Task: inverse folding
């Protein structure tokens, strides 16, 4: 398997522009996670999908952020409009787990998208 | 709110040394715990997963243990090599949740 695939790997954009990050999870996985990593705040969970359904989006910083998972093999994270404080590395991770809390699961991360908003 | 501290924040050692990295949770009710490695500019690679019914896991030169009574985990690296140089992160879930909370990381450099 190719692992989790993310695109683009690097994105530089100007403040106010729309940014779309893409993720292809590992085939057979039913759960997908979007994270953001910064020096100040470390790694933060933004949103979690299970079987293509958003289960927890409490980590999404504000309405400028939205995420979709139209099918089991594709997800997007969109920022509109982008701001300089959105600059970070955005990771997508996938796993297989049921919706029942407490289940042990191993997360597989993509290489990340480094976003710079000027 | 669960917070995770990793000590030390950075570590530089000569090749061949045995190392211990520490991870501490403010809420000791840790259910599952995972250790990751992150190389510069890359994603996280899972190293070891300790499930709720386990106390430790081993893979090659790596051994991770979890003390649920204190909410602490250690990652032991035997006979360190320059290729072990990376940032190591721990992440844990608490009972009743699926969400992993990540530590701040330990930046390791092994000198040849």
Result:
């Amino acid at each position: 398997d190719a692992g989790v695939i993310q695109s683009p790997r690097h994105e530089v954009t100007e403040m106010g522009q729309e940014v779309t990050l893409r993720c292809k999870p590992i085939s057979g996985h039913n759960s997908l996670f979007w994270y953001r990593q910064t020096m100040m705040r470390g790694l933060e969970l933004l949103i979690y999908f299970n079987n293509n359904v958003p289960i927890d989006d409490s980590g999404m910083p504000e309405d400028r952020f939205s995420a979709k998972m139209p099918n089991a093999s594709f997800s997007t994270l969109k920022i509109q409009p982008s701001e300089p404080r959105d600059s970070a590395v955005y990771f997508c991770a996938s796993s297989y787990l049921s919706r029942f809390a407490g289940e042990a699961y191993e997360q597989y991360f993509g290489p990340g998208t480094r976003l710079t908003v000027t | 709110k669960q917070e995770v501290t990793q000590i030390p924040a950075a570590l530089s050692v000569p090749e061949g040394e045995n190392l211990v990295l520490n991870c501490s949770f403010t809420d000791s009710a840790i259910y599952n715990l995972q250790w990751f490695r992150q190389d510069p500019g890359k994603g996280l690679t899972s190293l070891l997963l300790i499930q709720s019914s386990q106390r430790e896991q081993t893979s090659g030169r790596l051994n991770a243990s979890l003390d649920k009574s204190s909410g602490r985990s250690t990652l032991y690296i035997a006979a360190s090599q320059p290729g072990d140089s990376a940032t190591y992160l721990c992440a844990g879930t608490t009972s009743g949740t699926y969400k992993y909370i990540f530590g701040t990381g330990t930046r390791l450099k092994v000198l040849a």
